[in-house]
Amino acid sequence: MSLFSFMRLRDIGLFLTSARTDAAIARHRQTMSQGEAMEAVYAERGDPWASASPSYLYQRRKYEVMASLLPKDRHFTAALDIGCGVGGMLRELSPRADQVLGVDVAPSAIAFAQRANADLPNLSYQVSDIHSLPESLDGRFDLVVVSDVIYYLSPLEDEALKQIGARLVRLLAPGGLLLLANHYFFQLDPDSRVTRRIHDAFRWLPGLQLQSEHCKPFFLASLLRRSV
Ligand SMILES: C[S@@+](CC[C@H](N)C(=O)[O-])C[C@H]1O[C@@H](n2cnc3c(N)ncnc32)[C@H](O)[C@@H]1O
Questions:
Q1: Where are the domains of the chain?
Q2: 66, 152, 153: residue to mutate for ligand 1 pocket, most atoms within 8 A of CB
Q3: How far apart are the C-alpha atoms of 228 and 219, rounded to whole Å?
Q4: What pLDDT digit, counting tens, does each position of 125-168 carry?
Q5: CA of residue 151 to ligand 1 center, whole Å
């Protein structure tokens, strides 16, 4: 797949928008919790990573490519998108699953996603921090998606990563799939190196087996399966 089918020159504006949002999050984190900082950028900017903007191709293509990495012949009973933001990936998941739950720590993100996807009746929503997902969700999902979320959960020590990973494994039914995606630019920038560390930690988690890894412009995706 060529770089230009993924993005246009003006998509560079998207990366500048994202960099400004990330800088705003870093500022807010001096006085706020991680969840409050996320809500603040949605409250200030509406769509802080321009994920729903028709001006940019990149995020839409990212969601399409992520969906294309799922096994073609598999229909899911219950899918979960954690850190769903304004809901672009929920739209891709809707035809692939009976029910899709979108979770985000930011109430304003969930409100945006609900408005944007009001035509899709199999979507539901919950405001929750990834660290405090209710145990009632455990074992309920045959697909969990976590895209461009984990590197915001600083500090991201190896032990913290293992705990988040173990929590995600518990959400999966036996045989369920975890689709993990994070920004990646050939390990050239610091965020890409964090991404490599996240994906390496997940591939060794007890109870998960790596099915495939895909390096796309500009993200890394790992598809992992919960052991039966
Ligand atoms: C860069 S956006 C990615 C949105 C979407 N997953 C995508 O790929 O376009 C990061 C999202 O993660 C959410 N998030 C950050 N920390 C979170 C946490 N602790 N629990 C749940 N969601 C969180 C943010 O509110 C934000 O919507």
A1: 3-226
A2: 152
A3: 29
A4: 999 999 999 999 999 999 999 999 999 997 889 999 999 999 99
A5: 9
Give distance in angstroms: CA of 109 to centre of ligand 1.
9
Q: Which numbered atom of ligand 1 lies nearest the CA of 84?
A: 6
Tokens at 97, concatenated: 């699953």
Q: Half-sphere exposure of residue 103, counting CA atoms within 13 Å on the CB side?
A: 20
CATH fold group of domain 3-226: Rossmann fold (3.40.50)
Q: Please give the pLDDT value at position 4.
A: 57
Task: Reply yes or no: is the peptide bond before residue 4 cis, omega within 30 of 0.
Answer: no
- pLDDT greater than 90 at residue 27: yes
Give every CB contact of residue 177 below 8 A, 6+ residues apart in sequence. 70, 71, 142, 143, 144, 211, 223, 224, 225, 226
In this model, does residue 227 exceed pLDDT 70?
yes
Residue 116 confidence (pLDDT) above 60: yes
Residues with C-beta less than 6 Å from any ligand 1 atom: 34-35, 38, 49, 51, 59, 83-85, 88-89, 104-106, 109, 129-131, 147-149, 152-153
Question: Quick one: pLDDT at residue 113?
Answer: 98
Task: Report the pLDDT value the prediction gives residue 219, as an integer from 0 to 100.
Answer: 95
CA of 210 to the centre of ligand 1 (A): 23
CA 42 to ligand 1: nearest atom: 25
